Amino acid sequence: MADPSTQALNVGIIGCGNVSATYLRLAPLFAPFTISAVADLNAAAAQDRAQAFGTKALSVDALLADPSIDIIVNLTVPAAHASVTSASLEAGKHVYSEKPLALSSAEARAIAALATQRGLRVGAAPDTFLGGAHQAARSQLDGGAVGRITSGTCHVMNHGMESWHPYPDFFFKPGAGPIFDIGPYYLTSLVGLLGPVERVAALSGMGSAERTIGSQPRAGERITVETPTDIHALLAFESGASITLSASWDVWAHGHQPMELYGTAGTLYLPDPNFFGGAVQHTSEAGAMRDVAAGSAHPFAPANENFETAPRANYRGAGLADMAQAIIEDRPHRCSLDLTVHVVEVMEAILKSGEEGTFVPLQTRCERPAPLSAAQAQSLLR
Q1: What's the rounded Cα separation, in Å, for the pair 353 and 132?
Q2: Distance from C-alpha of 184 to C-alpha of 178, rounded to nearest angstrom
Q3: What is the pLDDT of residues 94-109, one digit of tens each?
Q4: CA angle, residues 53, 54, 55, in degrees to nearest 5
Q5: Cis status, amide bond into 100, omega within 30 of 0
Q6: What is the pTM of this model?
Q7: Burial of 160 by CB count in 10 Å (0-12 exposed, 13-18 middle, 19+ buried)?
Q8: What is the pLDDT of residue 28?
Q9: How far apart are CA 110 and CA 121, in angstroms?
Q10: DSSP letter string over 296-349?
Q11: Cα separations (Å) of 112 from 6, 118, 120, 140, 371?
């Protein structure tokens, strides 16, 4: 188990696809955990990752049975998230899952019940809301810079992944689409800023019944779309705020900000919650727009990697580090089970409303996660 001299928990990864390389590459940044082993149903994939990053490869069963592993990081495909997380809990391991935690609120609640029964922690991505930009926005809200939030807009719109992704099929299957694939970033950020959602309404559609793959090795192959790709939702928060969320893979271009929150004393402009950093701006009532100093002090604000053509702040693993430290310190972790179960239900409710044309009330709720100060973020780093 954890080495008492270093107080770092041992982590095993299940799922050695593309995202595993990101976790393994960034893991040396963080003090509260060490990645000790990787596993995949494809043994060759596990061996490749282990060799590339200097760790060991095990079978899935051997990893779950290893008494030295404290936390399983579940990086399998979304359809397997619930089953792998449940198996890990049954094996006596804490779990940190990539998003989404599950593909239905029933699966998410079952995971929560099992974790409670076994006395184990479950956390889940996204952890981008712990980034310096988003924590600066949280500080602005908590400090009353723009007053009480009454409404806002979120836009995550493009033309999908089939033009560049080599295997884009799963993006257009149930359990994906823009709501389950990208929605967790926006919804987790909103709940972290404003608290839980009370009810939702949505319109949904599908721009095309088929998509043509534009990248090798399958360029020209057509795939069937099986989930809505154009969703416009209205989110009613317990706080009284009403937020419009437009999530679409049927848009070629647009001019909307990723997130804008409108308060009784001003407006707050937030960057894309898919990333840890970015510009935060606000206006005070009718005053001019001003920049918030998001990158001056917070360790999770500076750009540390290149993403396509732009430098980006990438601290994926911060949520895992916070959970590992929380286990050691016996305190709540920020990427909490209650938070992710609530977000799964919100996503499910959006799609249900789009199908039925009615408001859908939420049954779950959660508290806002605690803010992450610069000093607290620094304590997660080596």
Answers
A1: 34
A2: 9
A3: 999 999 999 999 999 9
A4: 100
A5: yes
A6: 0.94
A7: buried
A8: 97
A9: 14
A10: SS-TT-S--EEETTEEE---TTHHHHHHHHHHHHT---SS-HHHHHHHHHHHHH
A11: 30, 10, 10, 32, 23
